[in-house]
Amino acid sequence: MTTTLLPRPALRFAVHEDGSWEVISPWFPIVLFAPEILARADGRRLIVQGEDIELRCTNGGARYRLTSMRLDGARLCRLMRSW
């Protein structure tokens, strides 16, 4: 039996001088959000509403559904839609 470890997908963003975000990675179907990221939701680029998190970028956006919490406090999130 062979075990293959896949790298965890990371959402990547460019931050412009005016503070806007540009997504430079695909919107992955499942990602982890650290509690520190969720605590920094500014209501403009990163919005947490109940169990949903929305990311708004200059070139699109996505809505993820927060699901289970890991022991380290990170939240597993599933992509609901992207645009």
Shape label:
globular
Return the structural class.
mainly beta
Could you give a short account of the major beta sheet? 5 strands, antiparallel
The counted number of beta strands is 7
Task: Determine the fraction of residues in helical runs and give it as a percent range.
Answer: under 10%
Low-confidence stretches: none
How do the strands line up in the largest sheet? Answer: 3-7-6-5-4
The amount of beta strand, in percent, is over 45%
The ordered H/E elements are EEEHEEEE
Mean pLDDT equals 89
Topology:
Blueprint: E1 13-15, E2 21-23, E3 30-33, H1 35-39, E4 46-49, E5 52-57, E6 60-69, E7 75-82
Antiparallel strand pairs: 1-2, 3-7, 4-5, 5-6, 6-7
Protein architecture, described:
With 83 residues, the chain is mainly β. The protein has a domain at 29-82. The protein has one helix at 35-39, and strands at 13-15, 21-23, 30-33, 46-49, 52-57, 60-69, 75-82. The strands form 2 sheets. It has a 5-stranded antiparallel β-sheet with strand order 3-7-6-5-4.
Keywords:
83 residues, mainly beta
Concise structural overview:
The chain is built from one helix and seven strands. With 83 residues, it is mainly beta.
